[in-house]
Design brief:
Blueprint: E1 7-11, H1 16-27, E2 31-36, H2 39-51, E3 55-60, H3 66-80, E4 85-88, H4 103-131, E5 135-139, H5 152-171, E6 176-182, H6 196-209, H7 213-224, E7 234-237, H8 240-243
Parallel strand pairs: 1-2, 1-4, 2-3, 4-5, 5-6, 6-7
Amino acid sequence: MNDSPKIVLITGASSGIGAATAQRLAAAGHHVVLGARRLDRLAALTATIRADGGSAEHMALDVTSQESVHAFAQEAHRRHGRIDVLVNNAGVMPLSRLDALRVDEWDQMIDVNLRGTLHGIAAVLPLMKAQRSGHVINICSTLGHDVVPSSAVYSATKFAVKALSEGLRKEQQDIRVTVVSPSFTESELNTLGGDPDTMAWVRTMADKLNMPTSSVADAVAYVIDQPVAIDVNEIIIRPLVEAAA
């Protein structure tokens, strides 16, 4: 059991990296507060964590709504008296070339990936400032470091998440800020929306390169468990075959 269990809020926790991170942190002794739109999946994950001896709860959450994210954070704070960590994980990735003009999907990526991250920061920042401690972990992407054809808008949102993280780190001396940037990872990101031909190519690459979600969850657990005076600014995670290319 962890000697310093933390109250950890995780957005987009119903599947993929979010769900794996919830299980990993609960197994390490932290209390996880899970948020997502799919309550049935959250309920099942919460039950699994508790059956395995972990501590978890869940709430409905839509990161595109400032009111929803605010209520999520406030209720967690009311129940536990503090928020130690926020994992901004919710994200979407409907890739397409710009000339496909899939503007609705551009807006969706901006709303979830960028505005959702901002909503999370806005919800916890006053609480963390008041307690003079906290940790914001933003799940980014290797496409927040590089742009490929069809990733322009998605990359733009993830480059922005990196910029936000750097700004928050420089403004708040009592709050740790970490960016975790994984490459291809087992998730639903490559199955939802986007240009069909582009997403078929993404799925083909994912079949070759996908990392287990546990790899990202382990990285999140590592940065959380560093001494409070240590801030791991960024971790980039790639499969070896891709990193060596």
